[in-house]
Write a structure and sequence with these properties.
Protein name: Phosphoglycerate mutase
Pfam family, one: His_Phos_1
Order of helices and strands: EHEHEHHEHHEE
Organism: Brevibacillus formosus
GO molecular function: phosphatase activity
Largest sheet: 6 strands, mixed
Number of domains: 1
Shape: globular
Helix content: 40-55%
Structural class: alpha/beta
Length: 179
């Protein structure tokens, strides 16, 4: 059995890759370190975006675990051009996983990217792994595991947020554990 903790980053000052955590986000990162203190984590993999790494850094430093960066955990790009209707179009991509906008990636492409990492993790020797990523990518990953997870669940995600993914042979169960 493997347990994978899916972590959405703490509150950030922006969406760009180098966006810093806000002051509140820094406090949240410390709270997250306290939250994970009793968990037997043996590997941490993060999006290379600053806000994701900064989210897990306090915990990683306390445990002496190196944070591995993996580009497959970067946020999903909805469109390469600014869209005033991005919210509605994002909703559409949860209904039509193949829908792709200019310069963006479809939900299916993002799901496949994240699932390629998940497949590798399931084959390695570590049993308790933290993955730190972004709201949309994590929501799509969870949708690929449980199709009931949808756009409205994405809307309810908090910064940070933590879900526990338990993987037994052929079954997977997702439970939100952050409150």
């Amino acid at each position: 059995m493997k347990t994978i903790y899916l972590v959405r980053h703490c509150q950030a000052a922006g969406q760009e890759p180098e966006a810093l955590l806000t002051e509140k986000g820094e406090v949240q990162a410390q709270e997250l370190a306290t939250f994970f203190a009793g968990f037997p984590i043996d590997r941490i993999i993060s999006s290379p975006y600053h806000r994701a790494i900064a989210t897990i850094r306090p915990f990683a430093q306390e445990r002496g675990i190196v944070v591995e960066e993996d580009t497959r955990l970067v946020e999903r790009v909805l469109s390469g051009v600014p869209r005033g209707d991005w919210f509605e179009r994002l909703r559409d991509t949860f209904d039509d996983l193949a829908l792709e906008f200019e310069g963006g990636e479809s939900s299916l492409t993002a799901i496949n990217r994240a699932n390629s990492l998940l497949t590798e993790i399931l084959a390695d020797e570590h049993n308790n792994i933290v993955l730190v990523s972004h709201g949309c990518l994590l929501a799509l990953l969870m949708k690929s595991i449980d199709d009931r997870f949808g756009f409205h669940d994405w809307e309810k995600l908090s910064n940070p947020d933590v879900f526990k993914l338990t993987c037994h042979l052929e079954t997977r169960e997702i439970v939100r554990i952050w409150s």
